[in-house]
Automatic annotation (TrEMBL), chain A:
PANTHER family hit by this protein: SPX DOMAIN-CONTAINING PROTEIN 3
Alphabetized InterPro entries for the sequence: SPX_dom, SPX_prot
Transmembrane intervals: none
Biological classification of the source: Eukaryota, Viridiplantae, Streptophyta, Embryophyta, Tracheophyta
Name assigned to this protein: SPX domain-containing protein
Species assigned in the record: Xanthoceras sorbifolium
Limits of the SPX domain: 1-160
Automatic annotation (TrEMBL), chain B:
Annotated family: Belongs to the MYB-CC family.
Keyword DNA-binding: no
Origin species: Xanthoceras sorbifolium
Biased composition, class Polar residues, residue ranges: 104-126, 439-460, 471-481
Keywords: Coiled coil, Nucleus, Transcription, Transcription regulation
Cellular localisation: Nucleus
Protein name: HTH myb-type domain-containing protein
Compositional bias of kind Low complexity: 127-140, 400-413
Residue spans of biased composition, Basic and acidic residues class: 421-438
Length: 261, 488
């Protein structure tokens, strides 16, 4: 139940509005157990066929759920992305050096706000990609279980279908993520280079309390744990995850000075 | 007999669906008394057949969902409820995407659904369950999709992807499903056609649902697209967006036009640009009306519902940025404010943001890597499966020719089996070689798979180099398994 536990952890830690949008892994597992515990079914028998139908039906429902949620979020992201771009343009146009009301302090203040928004926006998008991935992983696992327990051949064709679903084709969101990173690098590059080390501690304490950041840290750690080596290793298993700077992530994990929730 | 486990599963399913499942899967729901068979006879067979063909054809298509053209991609199965005509629905939904193909689709879609569910066995629990899941009801799909036929130009590329993308696109076949009486055929199809199966199930079940709700057809099922087109204007008020994804949120009501359709549109930046253009032309976010924007955008498949909801989101984002992301944002913002007030210098904020950004970037990177690996794995599995099937068909040919010989048949089949296994191993090794330039992790997986040619049914220990070839041969299909076992 390792994945199940991890998934639950992730669901607990995720943004509240997302909690019920994840895969119902536990229940699907129960269903698989139920199906496999009924007397051995001949392949092609009606019971088997019906059971598989039921299972597939549920999976499809889950997929629908993912798709709906994902696309809604994606739409919001598209809008917000554009908004942020426009805000930047406006601030530059008004408070920038050549603007209508040039003002360094105003410029800095507004840009500061925009920057914070961009970083949070970036985080939220990454969390959505994580959402997509963890649900996919769950589906792959449950299908593997199903085939193993019932001797079915559902996994391969079904997963091919899943691969094409909107919730898994996250290219657009990834693209927006990269664009955010570029925006931050280009627009905000100038402001960041002072006394980093000294302030790092306090920064860590502060940021780990914030919702989105906390979630991304949690997501990263969860991912690491899920990928820490499979007990049923096969050619369909992912290799263990190797994070280059895992200690950074670990250090961020703990403190939660501002209680969220 | 089998009704009971089914009902158990159904209740479990229902709970799953409602997300309120607390694991009470064993409680069985009362079986609703609408047997499948009753609904079946209603649909003409021709529809079902075409549907079936359609569904089969789908797995073959594999265009990407995200279209590269002007953002008007994807297709939406409108899930407006109300139209009882199952056939219509099924035919309609595929239509939208590909206008050129719509005529074909409508017919095929109806047929596709048919073969599946119709079995002689009383699938009562199933039908009742599907009626529970009104959300999936195909009834809601059809009406919306109908008008789509009229308006959409040929959009063939989307067609298949659409069809596939809507995993629950029982839309098409759902109606047809209920009509089918040939349960046995459906069972056969299950075994042979996995791809179609997955979609068919959905259709089947959702179809049952729909037929339960709307036994009568809104209008006779025409065999020609033209007649469908004719009917559509009467039925639909909205066009399902063609560039969206099918989100079949079903409203099971029987009122044809009043149910708010919720087909989901996949908004791309380009589409959004066009939207913003239109809005600006109309005087800005506050003054623009959905209808005006819709007209100005001239995007096929876009419905006024899409525009309306998008406009709402847009307004929220512009004029009330805090509320766009929902309550959690609101909650977070004051906390963030407090923390920033506590910070003495802007440097700390900067540092905090930088750190946050680092972690987020890291996570994203890892997610991308993981996703690529997952895609690779499945690709590999598919390849191996294909290889195996090729070998298998080769073996079949050999066997059939060798069966002409009387005596040496047994030893020759053994020899054939051996050589087959050998060539499969070789094939997989060649496959390995090709991929050896990839990351080490993928490589190790490939080595594992060389022993098993994509066998995903075996346990881990078997993955380790077994000497015999039977695990290799016994891939994902059961018959070869049996054969190879007897062989060794």
């Amino acid at each position: 139940m390792k994945f199940g536990k991890r998934l639950n952890q992730q669901v607990q830690e995720t943004l509240p509005g997302w909690r019920d949008k994840f895969l119902s892994y536990k229940n699907l597992k129960k269903l698989v157990k139920l199906i496999s515990s009924t007397p051995p079914l001949l392949n092609g028998s009606l019971e088997y066929v019906k059971a598989e139908a039921e299972f597939v039906y549920l999976l499809n429902n889950e997929i629908d759920k993912f798709n709906a949620f994902f696309m809604e979020q994606e739409e919001d992201f598209v809008i917000k992305h554009k908004e942020l771009q426009q805000r930047i343009q406006r601030v530059i146009a008004i408070y920038g050096a050549n603007g209508s009301q040039p003002s360094v302090t105003e410029y800095k203040e507004e840009m500061g706000k925009i920057k914070k928004d961009i970083v949070n926006f970036h985080g939220e998008m990454v969390l959505l990609v994580n959402y997509s991935n963890i649900n996919y992983t769950g589906l792959a696992k449950i299908l593997k279980k199903y085939d193993k327990r019932t001797g079915g051949l559902l996994r391969l064709p079904f997963i091919q279908k899943v691969l094409k679903q909107p919730f898994f084709t996250t290219e657009l969101v990834s693209k927006l993520v990269k664009e955010c990173e570029n925006t931050i690098d280009s627009v905000f590059a100038v402001q960041e280079i002072e006394e980093e080390k000294k302030e790092r501690r306090e920064a860590i304490t502060v940021t780990s309390g914030e919702g989105i950041f906390r979630n991304t840290v949690a997501a990263l750690l969860t991912m690491q744990e899920i990928r820490s080596g499979s007990s049923t290793y096969s050619q369909f298993s992912l290799p263990p995850l190797n994070l280059p700077d895992s200690e950074v992530v670990q250090s961020v994990q703990l403190n939660s000075p501002i209680a969220i929730l | 007999m089998e009704a009971r486990p089914l009902s158990i599963q159904r209740s479990g399913a229902r709970q799953l669906n409602n997300l309120g499942v607390s694991g009470a899967m064993s409680s069985s729901l009362p079986v609703l008394p609408t047997p499948l068979e009753e609904t079946y006879p209603k649909l003409p067979d021709s529809r079902q057949i075409s549907m079936e063909r359609e569904v089969r054809a789908r797995p073959a298509a594999h265009t990407t969902l995200v279209p590269s053209n002007s953002g008007v991609v994807g297709h939406i199965f409108s899930s407006s409820s109300g139209f009882s005509s199952d056939l219509q629905y099924s035919s309609v939904s595929p239509h939208e995407k590909h206008s050129g193909k719509t005529p074909y689709i409508s017919q095929s879609s109806t047929n596709a659904a048919l073969p599946l569910p119709q079995s002689s066995h009383s699938n009562k629990p199933q039908s009742t369950t599907s009626s529970h899941y009104t959300k999936e009801s195909s009834s809601s799909w059809c009406p919306e999709s109908l008008p789509g036929i009229i308006d959409f130009p040929t959009n063939t590329t989307l067609h298949n992807s659409q069809l596939e993308s809507s995993s629950c696109s029982g839309v098409m076949s759902s109606e047809d499903f209920s009509k089918r009486n040939d349960w046995q055929d459906w069972a056969d199809q299950l075994i042979t056609d996995d791809d179609a199966l997955a979609t068919n199930w959905n259709e089947l079940l959702s179809d049952n649902n729909m037929t339960d709700l709307e036994p009568k057809m809104a209008y006779p099922v025409p065999n020609t697209p033209a007649s469908i087109l004719v009917h559509q204007p009467q039925v639909q008020q909205q066009l399902p967006a063609s560039s969206g994804e099918i989100r079949n949120v079903v409203t099971p009501s029987s009122s044809a036009n009043s149910a708010p359709a919720k087909p989901r549109m996949r908004w791309t930046p380009e589409l959004h640009e066009a939207f913003v253009e239109a809005v600006n032309q109309l005087g800005g976010g506050e003054r623009a009306t959905p209808k005006g924007v819709l007209k100005l955008m001239k995007v096929e498949g876009l419905t006024i519902y899409h525009v309306k909801s998008h406009l709402q989101k847009y307004r929220t984002a512009r004029y009330r940025p805090d509320s766009l992301e929902g309550s959690e944002e609101k909650r977070l913002t004051p906390l963030e404010e407090i923390s920033s007030l506590d910070l003495k210098t802007g440097i700390e904020i900067t540092e905090a943001l930088r750190l946050q950004m680092e972690v987020q970037k890291r996570l994203h990177e890892q997610l991308e890597i993981q996703r690529n690996l997952q895609l690779r794995i499945e690709e590999q599995g598919r390849y191996l499966q294909m290889m195996f099937e090729k070998q298998k068909s080769g073996l079949d040919k050999l066997k059939s020719s060798s069966s002409n010989l009387e005596n040496p048949s047994t030893p020759s089949s053994d020899a054939i089996q051996d050589s087959l296994a050998k060539s499969e191993r070789e094939g997989s090794q060649v496959d390995q070689g090709k991929k050896r330039s990839d990351t080490v992790s993928v490589n190790s997986m490939l080595e594992g798979s060389s022993q098993e040619l994509g066998n995903n049914n075996q346990k881990a220990p078997e993955t380790e180099a077994p000497e015999g070839s039977e695990p290799n041969v016994s891939e994902s299909s059961l018959q070869p398994t049996k054969r190879s076992r007897t062989d060794k």
